[in-house]
Amino acid sequence: MHPAPAFRVEDRVILLDFLRAHPFVTIAASVGGRPFVAQTPVVVRDLDGEVALDFHLSRGNGLTPHLTQGFRAVALATGLDAYVSPDWYASADQVPTWNYQSVEAEGSVAPLDEAELIALLDDLSAQEEARLLPKKPWTRDKMKAGKFESLLRGIQGGRLFVERLEGTFKLSQNRVEADRLGAAAGLKDHPIAQLMRNIL
């Protein structure tokens, strides 16, 4: 995460809402001295007050064999981002930067059993199909008998137990108002520009 306090987000409600809105994450881990990165959609779970991210990986993914013994990992969710030109600032002698939103969730990862994996897949489909309303939601009941079970053998589920959750929403909060609003004007209709304008 960005070290500047001005950009730090610590409100868990905001961070969890961000993860739910941006569920396609990058998981990074170092196992046996080797770095691994995988991308996967997640479902945010509340397990009696403990937050977890459930995900699945292909059996062919380099991280999958390590799920059995578990490992520590960081899941990174990203949102809007935009290049900011110094030409847009009211202040002179500035340099380019990049504004962005990201949330990190760090913790230990353990495997899901088959029942938990099936529940994850059903919940993940429901979560994403809900974004497509009024389309009638897809469910696995639409698949022919045996097909789902056959495909299930090709993936493994995992659960990241969140021990650290923090975010960076870098929206020019460290700039004087004229610079911030000038950068937002320069970005025109880019969605991040409205977030920059809304800062008090």
Automatic annotation (TrEMBL):
InterPro entries: Split_barrel_FMN-bd, TR_PAI2-type. Pfam families: FMN_bind_2. This is FMN-binding negative transcriptional regulator. It comes from Caulobacter segnis.
